[in-house]
Amino acid sequence: MTLKSALDPDGAEYAERRAAMLAKLADLEAEHAKALAGGGEKYVARHHGRGKLLARERIELLLDPDAPFLELSPLAAWGSDFPVGASVITGIGVVEGVECMIVANDPTVRGGSSNPWTVRKSFRAADIALANRLPVINLVESGGADLPTQKEIFIPGGRMFRDLTRLSAAGIPTIALVFGNSTAGGAYIPGMCDHVVMVKERAKVFLGGPPLVRMATGEEADDEELGGAEMHARTSGLADHMAVDEADAMRIGRSIVRRLNHRKLGPAPGPVREPVLDPEELAGIVPADLKIPFDPREVIGRIVDASEFDEFKPLYGTSLVTGWARLHGYPIGVLANAQGVLFGDEAQKAAQFIQLANRADTPLLFLHNTTGYMVGKEYEQAGIIKHGALMINAVANSRVPHLTVVMGASYGAGNYGMCGRAYDPRFLFTWPSAKSAVMGPQQLAGVLSIVARQATEARGGVYDEAQDAAMREMVEAQIEAESLPYFLSGRLYDDGVIDPRDTRTVLGLCLSAVHGAPVRGADGYGVFRM
Ligand code: COA
User: Fold this and answer.
1) The CoA carboxyltransferase N-terminal domain covers which part of the protein (predicted)?
2) Sign of the torsion angle spanned by Cα atoms 373, 3, 326, 283
3) Residue whose CA is closest, atom 1 of ligand 1?
4) What pLDDT sits at residue 186?
5) What pLDDT digit, counting tens, does each position of 103-159 carry?
6) Where are the domains of the chain?
7) Looking at the predicted structure, is the pLDDT value of residue 530 above 90?
8) Ligand 1: which residues within 6 Å by Cβ?
9) Which residue among 181, 189, 214, 226 is best mutated to probe the pocket of ligand 1, counting the most ligand atoms within 8 A of its Cβ?
10) CA distances (Å), 93 to each of 3, 68, 417, in order?
């Protein structure tokens, strides 16, 4: 049925919610601008002065004209000692009509060297490519490991090369376009790829550069002899193609993709129908204070095709909305929190719904706004743990693709049951209004305070109230800061923070990517505890 809205876009409540969301979005833009700035004016000018293109300019030239680019984790490394963006750009873009995973080093940020966050962001890109069968195109120009933090990258970083060859083994093509430095471990990026293009007089691909060779063996050799494009194309055979310049490398890269004969293995979408309800209004739905509940049907109606949503068990477990829809022509099952708390009925309803989606090979979309499973004597005695376990079992063992959007709260085991990061959704995006933690800041500070008070009293001491108040204030501020989207996105706990009004487009791109792989439901689950 077609969803109807109870939202009043002329009312004060809508205006207030929208104003709060727009303020958060302005903040988000400022954070994204940091990633866009790369290494800053000085390094950008130097790079351009050398006649080279920036990573984003390379991506633009590579992609089909006017094709969308779904950038992933632009806020990686936020809140760390490293620049926002983690010196690499990753995302899904269309090349010659084929959706590809693009991984581009940003040479303006510390020579494009890989720090611990760069490595994690690259791993995530490889995982997405593997799960969704997306060809990978590496745009390489990197100083290799960030040497001061080598202890955190050297050993785990080996996975980058392992991932490339495993993608190849799974029949997922890998391509390296080398624009500059690709030394030491970095040399295995072209080394492990199916197709390699190097730019003349620019690419430098060697295990050891001239100084290292001199130190190791006493041999005198220059960059070109050790790892130039000309040498690799004519002598070593590591380069399959030598490009005369960067634009030529992109042209060759595109022609390689054209010849891949890459096909999607999932079913094609049906006709697309735009929502009847206005997606612009998504900015005015989530209250600034997450303690106030909101109806997720107001969100669903603005992201699904024709605003049509057939609810499953609408009268049962009403704090979780479940139902069927289409999004950009793809069938989806939706699970969305309504009143915040998940009770036993909601958990059982979710477990049944997930099984039905797996029977029908239908991808699932999880929309979070939950404070977790209900606690208290009555609920424990009624078996809230085993009911939550049913839902978590179903989510963990479901095999259809999952997409997750954290709209508001995502606390406690509710984060797990609703397919948070640890449950491996194919993609997870966050709205600027989201908050995620083991519990709310006040509750967490309160629990710490009660535990400390009991421990002091058990020792026969007197609890210091002033110190308690200061401790609570400090802990609340810390947990609040750690619950916010930038902090979590910085740690790669999502694939990006998005404008709620872009949700339909982002999910449409994700669903298209997801259908690169076969879409099939699970045959079995763990033992359901009854
Ligand atoms: N680790 C940490 N910082 C690095 C780095 C690395 N691997 N490579 C470069 N940087 C830093 C530089 O110290 C410099 O910092 P500064 O501007 O604050 O002084 C900045 O990044 C830019 O480097 P610069 O050498 O000026 O840039 P370039 O474009 O002229 O040269 C490289 C880039 C990558 C060719 C060059 O920096 C280099 O050879 N780096 C070492 C490569 C290497 O041997 N890596 C080991 C791989 S395991």
Assistant:
1) 21-272
2) negative
3) 146
4) 85
5) 999 999 999 999 999 999 999 999 999 999 999 999 999 999 999 999 999 999 999
6) 1-36+268-437+484-525, 39-258, 441-482
7) no
8) 110-111, 113, 143-147, 181, 183-185
9) 181
10) 33, 6, 31
Return d(Cα 72, Cα 85) in angstroms, integer: 10
CATH number of 1-36+268-437+484-525: 3.90.226.10
Q: DSSP letters along 461-491, please?
A: ----HHHHHHHHHHHHHHHHHHHSHHHHHHT
Pick the CATH number of 39-258 from 3.60.20.10, 1.10.12.10, 3.90.226.10, 3.40.50.720: 3.90.226.10
At 481-527, the pLDDT tens digits run 888 899 999 999 999 999 999 999 999 999 999 999 999 999 999 99
- Show contacts of 29-33: CB within 8 Å, 24+ apart: 31/75, 31/78, 31/84, 31/486, 32/74, 32/75
What's the confidence (pLDDT) of residue 440?
83
Please give the C-alpha separations between residue 90 and each of 36, 339, 380, in angstroms, as whole numbers.
13, 36, 44
Q: Express each pLDDT in 6-25 by its tens digit.
A: 999 999 999 999 999 999 99
Identical fold, 1-36+268-437+484-525 and 39-258: yes
How many other CB atoms sit within 10 Å of the CB of residue 310? Answer: 9
The protein residue whose alpha carbon is closest to atom 4 in ligand 1 is 110
pLDDT in tens, 394-438: 999 999 999 999 999 999 999 999 999 999 999 999 999 999 988
8 Å CB contact between 91 and 102 = yes
Q: Which residue has the tokens 């080279």?
A: 52
Token digits of residue 93: 């873009």
pLDDT digits (tens, 9 = 90+) for 209-258: 899 999 999 999 999 999 999 999 999 999 999 999 999 999 999 999 99
For residue 145, how far is its CA from the centre of ligand 1 (angstroms)? 10
Bridge partners (DSSP) listed for residue 90: 72, 103
450 CA from centroid of ligand 1 (Å)? 51
Atom 46 in ligand 1: residue holding the nearest Cα? 144
Q: Which residue has the CA at smallest separation from atom 16 of ligand 1?
A: 110
pLDDT digits (tens, 9 = 90+) for 52-103: 999 999 999 999 999 999 999 999 999 999 999 999 999 999 999 999 999 9
Closest by alpha carbon to 415, among 444, 439, 443, 446?
A: 439
Write the CB contacts of 133 (distance below 8 Å, at least 6 apart in sequence): 170, 171, 172, 264, 265, 516, 517
Q: Which residue reads 């620019």 in tokens? A: 202
Phi-psi group of 460: left, alpha or beta (phi > 0 → left; psi -120 to 50 → alpha; rest → beta): left
CA dihedral 283, 288, 291, 295 (to 10 degrees): -20
Distance 40 CA to ligand 1 centre (A): 15
